[in-house]
Amino acid sequence: MNKELMMGNDAIARGLLEAGCQVAAAYPGTPSTEILQSVINRKDQAVNPLHIEWSVNEKIAFEVALAASYTGKRSVAVMKQVGLNVAADPFMRTAYLGVKGGMLTVVADDPGPHSSQNEQDTRLFCLQGRVPVLDPSSPAEAKAMIGPAYQLSEKYEMNIVLRPTTRVCHSRQSVALAEPVKLDRIAAFVPDTGRWCATPAFLPGLHRSLNAKLEQIAQEPHWQPRLLVGDESRPRVALVASGIAHANLVDLLEELGLSGTIDLYQVLMPYPLNPQFVEHLQQDYDRLLVVEETYPVIELQLAHPGACGKQTGAVPREGELTPDVLYQALAAFLGLDTPPTMAAPGRGQRPSLCPGCPHRAAFYSIKKTFPDGIFPSDIGCYTLGMNLDAVHTVHCMGACISQGAGFHQAYKQDGGRVPTVVVTIGDSTFFHAGVPALINAVLQDARIIVVILDNATAAMTGGQPVPHMGSTADGRKTKIIAIEPLVKAAGVDFIESCDPYQHDRFENLLKKADAHTRSEDGGVAVLISRHGCLMDPQVRKMQEAPAVIITEDCIGCGQCVEDFECPALSMDEENGIARVDPDRCHGCGTCIPVCPAQAIVRKEEL
Q1: In the CATH hierarchy, which top-level class contains the domain 358-541?
Q2: Phi, psi at 531, each rounded to 5°
Q3: Between the N and C ends of the chain, which has fewer C-beta atoms within 10 Å?
């Protein structure tokens, strides 16, 4: 059997192709992004026709995959845990209505969190939504679950969730390869209004059917908890774990020489949990240590009087269950020597926008033009505008425009001067969730400035295509969905675009936008900050980049370093002046107007 060293997300992608998935839709977000990208990279390995798309948002990705499953094809929707919030509406209804061809929703959770706006446990979401959820503990196990998960989905005509976490997604393992299954399925949608169009009159019956299915799924032999039997040296005591926490626990027991001395259960399907398993634990064990990330999903279902875990405080209620954290819990449970609690490692130097990033220039101009403004922003690399004091709120995708409108309405009703509200939102985020919010702001006459930061890519997640660039997930040309017509169709009268590298023009347009919001017949103003992301080699290649230097006129004020915060600039503490790192500088020149002493110049100008 052939094996390949794979990252977890790559293993999941290969598993999808091996199982005959034919429609794969996703919205990028760490830690799930590489799954669809790997499907794209491996599309030549597919033996069935394959449609792949980066959808505009997670709700749309889910609905595209759902419709494909109605035709009998196998499909998948991929997202991170907060993306499931966006897809919640169709996700919850699908539990009742079901699917035809196998459908998986891969939701990557981010305990920690490493790159998310909150910790969230998809298993708890699935418990609420009454959707079966699988919890892999390694890349190989995640891949191995996919084929049986499709079979489970088709047997019960239900959407099934696969929930890898960050450590599963991004760790690497040698994974066995299998030949992709050729399904030869032809799309055949059969209308059934009582099911696919179910009105409230049909829902109680569908709910009863769902409950019956869940009872049957809980009994499925393939998905029962696995037991690593102990040597009875610790009778009536057991460990119960799932996901990456189980893998960490296995390694920890081996390291401590305790492997095989205590009963250890791995829960593959945290919901629905087999009631016989629950009864078995209640009857045969007096004490349990339940280890799971992030919430007590298994612990709640067990309702065991001797269970120690999240609910009792024996296991931390937040953060990752890393081996050192697990050791503290295991030592307390088993009465082992407990070392002093290690201090959490520092985060190191705070992240900053890349050298030459056009967003930095835009943020600097916004703060300079409106020093007393209110600046709602959004999820993306541009969140780092907070370092320039040009981002005051970050909530969730698309919230910045709605929050900007809310700020305006709150100040407006006081009757005094309303502060300038400048919203910043990325191009991908604008398409994802900004359009409805913009329509609402126009409708409610919220006099705000919306700056769309158009760098022609979804930069934060690795450069996925955006709708106005006219490219599909696999690189094919498609229609360009331009930003300006969308903005105009939303009812906005003031629409301008400008390269933020052009400080003076950009700042003048900001002032004109502010005047428009304050004029009698004005309204929402939109300024598109348009310059490609410098992480794209083609952008760097096309951009002129004459060397930037600092002359002897530098007065050492530090404004270029502290207020502009370009990583290519730093203070020479010994000489008390600023300096440019030529290896990091892209020669954009946006720092030149920042210097009050005019000591930053292009080398060619000397």
Answers
A1: alpha beta
A2: -160, 135
A3: N
- With a cut of 70, say whether residue 492 has pLDDT above it: yes
Q: Give the span between the Cα atoms of 154 and 132, in whole angstroms.
A: 13
User: pLDDT digit string (tens) for 238-284?
Assistant: 999 999 999 999 999 999 999 999 999 999 999 999 999 999 999 99
Q: What is the pLDDT of residues 535-578, one digit of tens each?
A: 888 888 888 778 888 988 899 898 899 889 899 999 988 888 99
DSSP annotation string for 515-548 = HHHHSTT---EEEEEE---TTSHHHHHHS----E
Take residue 549 and report the two structure tokens written for it: 């230097």
Beta strands in 208-351 (DSSP E): 226-228, 237-241, 263-266, 287-291, 307-308
Asked if the bond preceding 94 is cis, omega within 30° of 0, the reply is: no
* Peptide bond before residue 275 is cis, with ω within 30 degrees of 0: no
CA distance 529 to 496: 9
Is the CATH code 3.30.2130.10 the one for domain 3-217?
no
Query: 449-454 and 525-530 as β-strands: parallel, antiparallel, unpaired?
Result: parallel
Name the architecture of domain 222-334: 3-Layer(aba) Sandwich (3.40)
* pLDDT the model gives residue 117: 81
CATH class of residue range 548-605:
alpha beta
DSSP letter for each residue of 3-18: EEEEEHHHHHHHHHHH
Tell me the C-alpha to C-alpha distance, in Å, between residue 394 and each of 116, 121, 511.
11, 21, 24
187 SS3 class: coil
Cα–Cα nearest to 149, from 117, 205, 104: 104
With tokens 């005094």, the residue in question is: 416
Residue 419 contacts residue 386 (beta carbons within 8 Å): no
Q: Are 446 and 491 spatial neighbours (Cβ–Cβ below 8 Å)?
A: no
Write out pLDDT tens, residues 173-226: 999 999 999 999 999 999 898 898 988 888 999 999 999 999 999 999 999 999
Q: Do domains 222-334 and 548-605 have the same CATH topology?
A: no
Please name the residue ranges forming H helices in 451-603. 483-489, 503-518, 537-542, 559-562
The domain segmentation of the chain, as residue ranges, is 3-217, 222-334, 358-541, 548-605
